[in-house]
Amino acid sequence: MASQKVIEAKSEIVNEIVSTAKDSASFILFDYRGLTAEETTELRRILRDSDSSYKVWKNTLTKRALDSLNLNLDDCLAGPSAIAFSNDAIAPIKALSNFAKEHPALEIKGGIVDGNVTSLDEIKALSNIPSREGLLTMLAAGLIGTVRDLSIALKQLSDQKNEQ
């Protein structure tokens, strides 16, 4: 039987996982087998640059934590799993997806986005969303186009009035 110290240590880890899952906008599980030490260091740097983190916890402790939150990711917890998390829902997804394009050994398994269990297909769809700056640029371009069209129409109306 496990000693009281071991039980307390595991309990602390489970509580850490629970608080991380609750406080993060995204909690993405991925398989890192096959990555070299240099690639793992590069992945950590890329995640850090996107204001994300990643950690490796035991699957049994992760399962216990997710069960306490009534979230079922049992199919994602087969084999070694690492977890990327962030306060930005899209940042770790984009970072992991871009990294996986160059390093096929990394495999995204699934995760939690905004408190809901998210399938691999939904994660792939989220990875294709442009960045915030890209979306703002698209919005500005749409607004400028509308204003330009309005100014052309007003100019033509003004020209028609002046001709009469």
What is the element layout, followed by pairings?
Layout lengths: L3 H20 L2 E6 L5 H13 L2 E4 L3 H10 L13 E5 L4 H12 L4 E7 L2 E3 L1 H8 L4 H32 L1
Name the average pLDDT.
87
Topology, number of strands? 5
Strand content: 15-25%
Q: Number of domains in the coordinates?
A: 2
* Assigned CATH superfamily of the largest domain: Ribosomal protein L10, N-terminal RNA-binding domain
CATH topology of the largest domain: Alpha-Beta Plaits
Determine and state the CATH class of the largest domain.
Alpha Beta
* Rg: 23 Å
Low-pLDDT stretches? none
Q: How is the biggest beta sheet arranged?
A: 5 strands, antiparallel
Describe the structure using short key phrases.
single chain; 164 residues; 2 domains; five-stranded antiparallel beta sheet; 6 helices; 58% helix
Walkthrough of the structure:
The protein is of the alpha+beta class and 164 residues long. It has 2 domains: 4-129, Ribosomal protein L10, N-terminal RNA-binding domain (Alpha-Beta Plaits); 131-164. The chain contains 6 helices and 5 strands; from the N terminus they run αβαβαβαββαα. It has helices at 4-23, 37-49, 59-68, 91-102, 120-127, 132-163, and strands at residues 26-31, 52-55, 82-86, 107-113, 116-118. The protein has a 5-stranded antiparallel sheet with strand order 2-3-1-4-5. A hairpin with a 2-residue loop joins strand 4 (107-113) and strand 5 (116-118). Helix 1 (4-23) crosses helix 3 (59-68) and helix 4 crosses helix 5 (120-127). The longest helix has 32 residues, at 132-163. It is elongated. The model has no long low-confidence stretch (mean pLDDT 87).
